[in-house]
Write a structure and sequence with these properties.
- This protein is α+β, with helices and mostly antiparallel strands and 179 residues long.
- It has a single domain, classed as Sortase, Chain: A.
- Helices cover 22% and strands 31% of the residues.
- The chain has 2 helices and 8 strands; from the N terminus they run H-E-E-H-E-E-E-E-E-E.
- The protein has an 8-stranded mixed β-sheet with strand order 2-1-5-6-8-7-4-3, covered by helices on one side.
- The relative contact order is 0.16.
């Protein structure tokens, strides 16, 4: 009976994960449609967008490719990485993006495998992208908000934030626009 219960639990957990992943793929398709039909070269105002999509993040080294959602809530974090604070994609400031660290390789679960010097791309809704290079990686305690600082001396920066499943800390990647 216990084995049957365990089997049923894992079966439904897998179904739930597949639904979330499927929805995340649909978000990426929605991003592609939004960028395809964008009619101007200005950044879309995310607060008026019913889709909540403000851009896309890709990191080839770890096969990461997700839409970035405009606000950060527990429900939205289950769907895709979210802007925690900072400017719109590829604008001056520190764009802070939070993503869950699932054990199944989804969202930000593999960003700890990245190294200083690795690259990532951030796309806006007009499908323009900038490349960023990682310059720092570290952990902070859960209540440390210093990584959200917006002073960048006029530069475009990224901060990727996820949990460390081992110690309840936050794993941080810092990146700057490439010259």
């Amino acid at each position: 009976m216990i084995i049957l219960s365990i089997f049923i639990y894992f079966y439904f957990q897998k179904q739930k994960d597949q639904k979330l992943y499927s929805f995340s793929e649909k978000l990426d398709e929605k991003y592609q449609t939004l960028s395809l039909y964008s009619t101007n070269n200005t950044t879309t105002n995310s607060t008026s967008s019913s889709s909540h999509i403000i851009g896309k993040i890709t990191i080839e080294k770890i096969n990461l490719n997700y839409s970035i959602l405009s606000t950060c809530t527990e429900e939205l974090l289950k769907l895709s990485p979210c802007r925690l604070c900072g400017p719109e994609p590829n604008e001056i400031g520190n764009l802070c993006i939070a993503g869950h660290n699932y054990d199944n390789g989804k969202f930000f679960s593999n960003i700890s495998k990245l190294s200083i010097g690795d690259k990532m791309k951030i796309y806006d809704l007009n499908n323009n992208f900038l490349e960023y290079r990682i310059y720092d990686k570290f952990e902070v305690e859960i209540n440390n908000t210093s990584v959200l600082n917006q002073y960048t001396n006029g530069k475009k920066e990224l901060t990727l934030i996820t949990c460390n499943n081992k110690k309840k800390n936050r794993f941080i990647l810092k990146a700057k626009e490439m010259d």
